[in-house]
Design a protein that fits this description.
The protein is mostly helical. It has helices at about 5-20, 20-45, 50-60, 70-80, 85-95, 100-120, 120-145, 155-170, 175-185. It is built from nine helices and no strands. About 20% of the residues are buried.
Length: about 230
């Protein structure tokens, strides 16, 4: 296993997680803080860990908003449902790509809502099992399908595994998006970026002066022969 290649791949996925539209960065920042507070609550107070809706209710109460009633009503509504939200969250995680990272955010919201009935650990395990099972089914289908690619889309085992690993990594980094974005914004002014390599036709000449591109020579006009 090439450790350097793995490090480069993780660094590339880290940059891909931060490189998204501005509106999606704001949404990802909020979902990340929500998810991080929910997960941290399960470890800080394992015997009485807050649910995802409890986190929102306590946050609203801290800012002086009356969020207890609607939080309790939503909790009762989600607790009366089954584990479909955790299943949906796993499928949304599996649908995450580098250019489409919104399903990872929606997947975490769905898992947190599903945990209102199932609990923290069962909801996470069910979502992970759903995602892994979906990728496994596609991988088995890729082994039995025709591997010859000729002007049509098909399933290839290596590409299926690569897409599954990418989806899992981008989904797992959602709770860490807020602190990662904060550190990136904090350290960006102190980083020195390497100079861009200019092409030969745009490279400056020696002495700091700009080099004027060579003009094409005019076509020579032939004089008529004298008879």
């Amino acid at each position: 296993m090439d450790v350097q290649a793995l490090q480069r791949e993780l660094a590339r996925l880290y940059q891909a997680a931060l490189d998204r539209p501005r509106w999606q960065q704001v949404l990802a920042f909020g979902v990340s803080l929500w998810t991080l507070a929910w997960i941290a609550g399960q470890f800080l107070v394992p015997e009485d860990g807050p649910t995802a809706l409890d986190v929102l209710g306590r946050l609203a109460a801290r800012f002086g908003l009356t969020g207890g009633e609607w939080a309790e009503r939503l909790t009762e509504t989600w607790q009366s449902s089954g584990g479909g939200f955790a299943l949906l969250g796993g499928l949304l995680w599996a649908a995450t790509t580098e250019r489409g990272q919104l399903p990872a955010l929606l997947g975490w919201v769905s898992v947190m809502l599903g945990a209102e009935r199932l609990g923290y650990q069962p909801a996470i395990l069910l979502a992970v099992a759903t995602m892994a099972g979906f990728v496994l089914v596609l991988w088995l289908a890729a082994l039995t399908s025709d591997r010859f690619v000729d002007r049509r889309t098909t399933l290839l085992p290596r590409d299926v595994l690569r897409a599954g690993v990418t989806a899992a990594a981008l989904s797992a980094v959602v709770p860490l998006f807020a602190p990662a974005l904060f550190l990136a914004r904090l350290g960006n002014p102190y980083l020195t970026k390497a100079p861009k390599i200019l092409s030969a036709d745009r490279a400056p000449a020696r002495g700091g002066s700009s080099r004027i591109p060579e003009q094409p020579k005019p076509n020579e006009v032939r004089e008529p022969r004298q008879s």
